[in-house]
Amino acid sequence: MRDFVKLFEEIDGTTKTNQKIQAIVDYLQVAREEDKVFAIAVLTGNKPSRPAKTTDLRLWASELANIPLWLFEESYYIVGDLAESLSLILPKTSAEADYSLEQIITEVVRLKKVTVEEQKEVITGYWNHLSGTSLFVFNKLMTGNFRVGVSSKIVVKALAKYLDKDEAVIEHRLIGKWDPFTETMASLFESNLAEDKHFLPYPFYLAYALEGDPNDLGDLSEWVVEPKLDGIRGQLIVRQNDLFVWSRGEDLMTEKFPEFAKLNQILPDGTVIDGEVIPWKDGHALDFNVMQTRIGRKNLSAKILQEAPLVMVCYDLLEWNGEDIRTKPLYERRALLKAILETYPLDNILILSEHKQFANWEEAKAFRENARVHFAEGLMLKRADSPYEVGRKRGNWYKWKTEPMSIDGVLIYAQSGSGRRANLFTDYTFAVWDQEQLVPFTKAYSGLTDKELITIDNWIKRNTIDKFGPVRSVKPELVFELAFEGINLSTRHKSGVALRFPRILRWRKDKLAKDANTKEDLLDLIKQKP
Amino acid sequence: MTVLKRQKRTESQYMKLLTVNQKGLYCKQADVYLDPWKPVDTALISHGHSDHMRWGMKNYICQEQTVPILNLRIGAENNVRAVAYNDPFEINGVKISFHPAGHIIGSSQIRLEYEGEVWVFTGDYKIVSDGVSQPYELVKCDHFITESTFGLPIYNFPDPHEIYEDINTFWRKNVALGYNTVLLGYSLGKAQNILAHLDQSIGDIYLHGAVANTNEALATIGYDFPGVRITPENDRSKIKGAVIVAPPSASDTPWLRKMTPYKIAMCSGWMQLRGARRRRGVDKGFPLSDHCDWQQLNQAVQDTGAKHVYVTHGYENNFSKWVSEEYGIKSSIFKTLYNDEEEEVSE
């Protein structure tokens, strides 16, 4: 595992993409062949789940360190990361050993099925022979939350370089949840995809947000402009008489969408469509809130299917008659898609995404500003002659979301974060005025700079009114502008509303607590919805 | 019953030689304060860090090597009484002496003895020698007032010699890659600790003004640390493959950006934690500390033979509970206003 630990240290020690890529290439060049697939799996977030109870891990480590459990818990609270806490308190080993990554991961999986006594013996055995970063990496794998500072894009780039293949090819082959115990480097990267892996989707093409003015994009007629929908991006595959629906998160979600179940009887083999899975009624999309009543449910009752009927709004055609047509221009793919949707008896389960016809960019701007009224969250801009690319690429596709809603809230509770934010109060609860009273309406974690976080952390420590466990209530003094994508009635917060994607837009140092928004303002936002 | 109660109160009120009040740690018998945080008549100063040596005291008593620091930072000259290590003096029957604390140059544990009972206040200290400050001296006592900056079992620092080697390796590697090396450390203490162990054969050493000022003050009592002060007159283009020692407050400033390209490392015990390291946004963290780690704190508590331990700034609740549970020593908390200079953002 030393080579893998060295790789982890190098990735951890740099923020430069090229150095990370090089570190992975260097690793692949020296690692044991059997370890490589495990390393790739772990680096791309495909890792085994935690085999032992964390309470047991804490207990065993405290025993070995000769400290009472309460002292371990206090230490853990400061460190904010269990694997790191374990590593820091365990006594230094005098008999360091090396294990292969394959062995460690095999052990993690095996330990799930053995008795607690055996778990203890095996895990403490490893603890006695590991130190430093090796021990940390081991504990990270053992606690099931190993994360490395690389995106899958970086891993793909490194593999492409190492195997001397196209990035798009590598990305395609790494898609979905593959099993490092059954795959080899050869089966992963050299096998015949069409025959051996007909269930695999194509890598999704993702758009960057438009930052400048759309007029800079040139003539509107060169662009396909579609309403941006707030559902689940998905890829629908019919091959070898099987149907697969993949989410953008590369989860296979076929079972979740019974509406699509009969499509393999209707569409011919070798059809792959990219679109948005979204609840739809009376000719328009329903709120994302409706979708959420379905996702995560094991059993879909007739009632739920009726209240939240799903369709796929189709954006693109990636494969037709078994032929990969991603390099053809968008207008050709779209024309073919349109013809297919009109030809086959799809019963409005598959709907063509609307190509909005605007006279000029100004009209498009106006639509975007009021997108919510049109059941959309903005516009998608796609160059008419663009190929279907792999991953997030700039230039041909842009998302152009409507401005988020925003509201000024008062900071009333704070809690410390974890990981990089451990021991810093960075998780906040905000409130709005309900008459003379402040009522909490959302939590938010992101949006501030590290400097602001440190300043606010200091302020919180000096302005704590009360402590409940890890939570501190603070003087209602600081005001923040919070942005969010959606708002709905909810019983979860005292204010009676729930926000979608709340984040901190800016610290309003110019405002006093009394200047913050009210509960009425929030309810007004809900009323304005179509 | 009434008599018994009164006796008890008498004990707690008059037997304690040192107590904490709003101004600081107070010795009523001698009418002196130890590292007070509000202006008082007589202040015994353990060392020159700003949370222990504050402005506004009528009289300062400190170890002689702390005097130049006091002059630099507070400017007081007439009202300072310098004492040597292990050279006791008496105030109203209280025998007072200063003993090396190993924290920084001049840092002292302050020992007070009255009617056969001995109290020791550590100020800040470390047992491991840094090769610069006078090494920690074990002082036996009945009452031991200890800091607890790193008073949790997660803080076990590596051997400092390993860290010095790592720092030089880091520097060497950066030179090879064409980078300058910025080492962040508190200007008094950590900076000298670093400077004394840099391998000068690797390249040039430059200093931030705050570090240079401290070095100049220490030069007046015979210390000689390497490094050239960076001034606006310096030709910045000539600073190549060099080490620049600067206080933590210099990170992310226009001053530092002029040293580009550089790799930056923070030298502090807090760097033991990954989260702290990443939050700092530095390329590297060296857990080089001028405080006791968990092992050293435990060693000190046991070796002093104290029958009562008072825990100040740091993880005082946890460490105090641990001491009483683990060693059966009476332990309490002294709530002080000392903080940890290593985490201070500005000086």
TrEMBL record, chain A:
It comes from the Bacteria. GO terms for biological process: cell division; DNA recombination; DNA repair; DNA replication. The lineage of its organism: Bacteria, Pseudomonadati, Bacteroidota, Sphingobacteriia, Sphingobacteriales. The keyword Zinc does not apply. SUPFAM superfamilies: ATP-dependent DNA ligase DNA-binding domain, DNA ligase/mRNA capping enzyme, catalytic domain, Nucleic acid-binding proteins. The keyword GTP-binding does not apply. Pfam families: DNA_ligase_A_C, DNA_ligase_A_M, DNA_ligase_A_N. Gene3D superfamilies: DNA ligase, ATP-dependent, N-terminal domain, DNA ligase/mRNA capping enzyme, Nucleic acid-binding proteins. This is DNA ligase (ATP). PROSITE patterns: DNA_LIGASE_A1 (PS00697), DNA_LIGASE_A3 (PS50160). PANTHER family: DNA LIGASE 1/3 FAMILY MEMBER, DNA LIGASE-RELATED. It catalyses: ATP + (deoxyribonucleotide)n-3'-hydroxyl + 5'-phospho-(deoxyribonucleotide)m = (deoxyribonucleotide)n+m + AMP + diphosphate.
